[in-house]
Write a structure and sequence with these properties.
Elements (H helix, E strand, L loop, with lengths): L1 H28 L4 E4 L1 E2 L10 E2 L1 H13 L3 E3 L1 H9 L8 E8 L2 H14 L3 E5 L7 E2 L2 E2 L3 H9 L3 E5 L13 H19 L5 E3 L7 H10 L3 E3 L18 E2 L7 H7 L4 H9 L1
Parallel strand pairs: 1-5, 1-12, 2-3, 4-5, 5-6, 6-9, 10-11
Antiparallel strand pairs: 7-8
Helix pairs in contact: 2-4, 6-7
């Protein structure tokens, strides 16, 4: 009997230690996913990983809604991170880069349908233009989104240059400061968020974004171990048409895919 009791105690101890180790892993490696989209149309998914079809996008948004994800605005998520508040389970934020016209035509109606907030980062000198096959929202459409109460408009710089490749501090300042100034004048409200083109986070750009008065910035390309709580270099996950498979989408929105991706890509 004594040997049996001792064996049971050992098994219980191992189970408890395993659970504690798992819990420690969860606490250390959970990162609320910030989803990054670009194109929402039927053509781009055949050409690059930056495109998601409207059908797949709707399935993903419906998945978030039906599975009770805590889809927050970027401002709400930044507040949680900045003040080290407890981030609710299944929290996620939705962002778009570049300001393509299909964000207005295809994505916005779906976001309205499911009442999901999102942030769209626009490139000032591409607004209202058509460049090759790419067509961008005009000021009227951007203003409508901004006034909707559902969409936050952020800056994606003046010209979408890779900030890592700009040596001139004045040019960096122009890309970061001037884009904020122009957006605020056009939208008649403060612009709080900046997205680094090409995910090009670097110390000079980060410092200037803080100086310009942005509350947070979003990036994409990070080395293993970069802190997940840097609100001026928020980690994001690119969502592609591969995530039309909702199991893949579930993994990507689990809160652990950021860690998995960094281990894989290092």
């Amino acid at each position: 009997m004594f040997k049996l009791t001792r064996a049971v105690l050992v098994i219980c101890a191992v189970l408890i230690l395993s659970f504690c180790a798992w819990l420690g892993f969860v606490v250390c490696h959970y990162t609320a996913p910030v989803l990054m989209y670009h194109y929402i149309n039927d053509e781009e998914p055949h050409k690059s990983r930056l495109g998601v079809s409207p059908k797949s996008f709707e399935r993903q948004m419906r998945f978030l809604k039906e599975h009770n994800y805590n889809v927050t605005s970027l401002a709400e998520l930044v507040d949680l991170i900045k003040y080290k508040k407890k981030i609710p389970c299944k929290t996620a934020a939705i962002t778009f880069d570049d300001g393509y016209l299909d964000n207005y035509i295809n994505a916005f109606p779906i976001l309205k349908k499911y009442n999901l907030p999102a942030t769209i980062f626009v490139v000032i000198n591409r607004i209202g233009k058509r460049l090759g096959q790419d067509e961008y929202m005009d000021w009227r459409q951007i203003k409508e989104l901004s006034d909707s109460g559902l969409i936050t408009i952020g800056s994606h710089s003046m010209n979408h240059h890779n900030l890592n490749e700009i040596d001139s501090r004045e040019e960096l300042r122009y890309e970061i400061f001037e884009s904020k100034k122009i957006l605020e004048k056009a939208l008649q409200k403060k612009v709080h968020f900046f997205s680094y083109p090409f995910g090009g986070v670097n110390p000079a750009a980060r410092d200037l974004a803080i100086e310009a008065g942005y509350e947070a910035c979003a990036g994409t390309n990070f080395a293993r171990g970069y802190p997940a709580d840097d609100i001026y270099a928020l980690k994001r996950l690119r969502i592609s048409e591969n995530a039309k498979n909702l199991f893949i989408f579930w993994v990507e929105t689990s809160g652990f895919y950021t860690y998995i991706k960094e281990q894989r890509d290092d």
